[in-house]
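Q: How do we represent a protein-ligand complex in a form that can be generated token by token?
A: Start from the inputs.
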Amino acid sequence: MRSGSDLESTLECVRDTATTEIGPPKSAGAEHVRKKAKALKGYADAFNLTDNQTAIVRLSSLASSVVCLQEGAEPVMQMTCRDRNRIAMQSDLLGAAALGVRNVLCISGDHQTFGNQKEAKNVYDIDPVQQLMVFRQMRDLGQVWGGDVLEERPRVFLGAAANPFADPFEFRVTRLAKKINAGADFIQTQAIFDLDRFERFMAMVRERGLDQKVHILAGVIPLRSANAARYMKTKVSGMSVPDEIVDRMKGAADPKKEGVRICVETIERLKDIPGVHGVHIMAIGWEDIVPTIVQECGLMLRS
Amino acid sequence: MIIAERKDLGQIVEMLEGKERVLVAGCRSCVSICHAGGEKEVATLAEVLRLQAMNEGRELEVTEATVERQCEKEWVREIGRQVADSDIVLSLACGVGVQVMQEFYPTVMTVPGLNTSNMGAPEEQGIYMEKCGGCGDCVLHLTGGVCPVARCSKSLLNGPCGGSQDGRCEVNRDLPCGWDQIYHSLERLGRLDLLEVNIPPKNWIPSRSGGPRRIVRASIVQGNEEKRAGGGA
Ligand code: SF4
Ligand code: SF4
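Then emit the structure tokens for the protein with iron/sulfur cluster bound:
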């Protein structure tokens, strides 16, 4: 065990792991996170606290992770490369570890021009691959980048993202391999609607033996409306939503129910794909639905 | 002008490894003014490469070409024959020149012989100093014609930090403090009043923070018709 993280031990022994997300509020109120953590506790093995998602100023992922811990739910602290240079990154990692956060997800983050601080100067001092290299060195060698020795190492389970739907397609597997080489212990993927393409991606992943080196959690999003499906298909870059899904949502008498059905079907298929160790459910503002999905898929309660 | 300096010889030799015919391509513009990549530097480097290969008993054919501006296709086009006869192009232009070469001749690899540093000017003979960070939203009218983005080590927009002393920057005592220079320039201009204003957080969108920048002068862009008619350069 590298980290003492529950997510790590779960992934080591259980195949159907589930993680989900809690979006911190656009305010200084921790109550929102507390409530969601309480309500969702037991319905997922760990909870991602997003880091100023879509570049909108929110309660920090570190503070939200600590609130989560206080509620007895295991956090995955997300950390974007957009807002911090390597000094802040390393400092925040030490801070998080000191406060008991055991999982960290290393990501580039949405560009600031998508959010409410469009004029901000971004940082991108290091990228997610480098972030993993730096964090792994801190954890495994007990050294900050550059070599200074840490008296106490941060015990963290390191995560990264993978998007099988962005281009160039073949390079996506290479990029995943680079992240694993750099230190990723687990991977959460972009939301999967296009199962055919995901299966092709996983075949390439297995061909390189990458599924033996890392735990892969396949991402899913429960759709709430036909509009949401259309929006993701046309407006969100790096997503692939087949027409069939949009049509099903359009034709549904109860779109929310249909969205859940699609999500559950997707998870059932994902469970059969070799190399997939679990799912990451991104409910984006519809967190209440997570227990239903988890129960219907029989991904259940371990706590 | 763009200021650059030559890479280490070791690094250059490494980039050329395994190649037998090298074209060293210079540029007569900025990099020639800062003595990094003009005709003279091309000749010197080519000679060094030849001698080194000879000493090591390697086959190496080195040709030389220097164009007016390597950042424009029109000039780069002139050396097509020489590029075609080479296994690799070692460009002694700024990073823009290297990229234009590679775009224009996509099947022959172009590698950079220089490290491109900044936009600046000669201070005195042999000394070049950064003047502009290309932020895309110029504030020189507020700062006495001295750039706080490029010339203050912290890019502070509202005056010097606590490390400014005797006109020197805390980062390096050999460097003038940009804000000390701004202050004295405004003093000379009788515009110290400008220092009273608090400049709000800057808009970095026109800088790199909005992605690669692209400027379109609609009035001179050719339509498809014109391009087909052969009006394109
Ligand atoms: S303010 Fe911006 S544009 Fe003006 S000189 Fe400085 S960096 Fe260049
Ligand atoms: S000493 Fe002057 S130039 Fe250096 S960081 Fe401070 S204000 Fe900027």
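Chain B has a mean pLDDT of 94. Chain B has nine helices and nine strands.
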